[in-house]
Amino acid sequence: MEGANNSMLTEFILVGLSAHPKLQSIFFVLILCMYLMILLGNGVLISVIIYDAHLHTPMYFFLCNLSFLDICYTSSSVQLILDSFLTVKKVSFSQCMLQMFLSFAMGATECVLLGTMALDRFVAICFPLRYPVIMAKDRYVPMAVGCWAAGLVDSTVQTFLAVQLSFCSNNVIQHFVCEILAVLKLACEDISVNVVSMAGSSLLVLVIPVLAVSVSYIFIVATILKIPSTEGKRKAFSTCSAHFMVVIIFYGTIFFMYTKPKSKTTTDAENQDVFEALISLFYGVMTPMLNPLIYSLRNKDVKSAVQRMMRRKL
Question: What is the pTM of this model?
Answer without folding.
Answer: 0.86
